[in-house]
Amino acid sequence: MSIKCPKCQKELSSTDIFCSQCGYSIKNESTKNSSQKISYNTPQKKGNGCGIALLIFIAFLFTIFLIRTCSKTENTSSLTTDSVSQLSKEDSIKNKIRIDSIDKQQKIEEEKFLKTKAGKIYKKHREWSKEDCIKIAEHQVWIGMHYDMLVYMRGKPNNVNTSNYGDGPHYQACWHDYDPSCFYFDESQIITSYN
Predict the structure, then answer these.
(1) Mean pLDDT, consecutive 10-residue segments, the chain of 195 residues?
(2) Are 156 and 23 in contact (CB under 8 A)?
(3) How many DSSP H helices and E strands does the chain contain?
(4) Nearest-CA neighbor of 194 among 163, 173, 177?
């Protein structure tokens, strides 16, 4: 069965993932269409409350731990009950301030990251890790990177060649103005080698 490239209308085999004339990714187009169909037909899973029950159980265990810890402190300490409760209040206030400070620092760091070039890439592609976005922002290529990352970094390739050595189709995408210029991958679109 043959199909036409949506971009240049060239006749292609139904097993092709890329158009050999313009390099258009046929697989991405069919994946988008099939994922949209699936998302309309699949029912949404409702929460069963297990997370809430687990949270209540952990809070209960933490309360028991605090009661036992405080009772041991009262038995072994020469401090009065009032001074112990005063210390506990002070400790909880200090801990809350420390936790708030850590949360605030993490938010500041996240905001700083999102303002960088890598952060802007991460905003557009949440499916990519922050580390991968940093590498892409620094124009690094590596074995194991996804073809889409390479296209984001360099644009569409000048040509895409298809070959099949008996274990499924393999692809070579080449950019003439870059070094390394050619990248090799299979249907998973994970880069396996380059030169």
Answers:
(1) 82 82 72 46 60 86 87 56 69 85 89 92 92 93 90 91 86 88 86 83
(2) yes
(3) 6, 6
(4) 173
On whether the CB atoms of residues 181 and 167 are closer than 8 A, the answer is no
Decide: 5 and 18 in contact? Cβ < 8 Å. Answer: no
Beta strand pairing call for 169-174 and 159-164: antiparallel
What's residue 36's pLDDT?
Answer: 45
Query: 178: which 2 tokens?
Result: 């870059």
| pLDDT for position 29 | 55
Give DSSP secondary structure letters for 108-154.
HHHHHHHHSHHHHHHHH-TTS-HHHHHHHHTT---TT-BHHHHHHHH
Length of the chain (residues):
195
Helix (H/G/I), strand (E/B), else coil: 101 = helix
Take residue 173 and report the two structure tokens written for it: 């995408």
What is the per-residue pLDDT for 5? Answer: 85
Question: Which amino acid is located at 4 in the chain?
Answer: K
What is the CA 37 to chain-centroid distance, rounded?
23
- Beginning with the edge strand found earlier in the chain, give each strand of the sheet holding 182-185 in spatial order: 159-164, 169-174, 182-185, 191-194
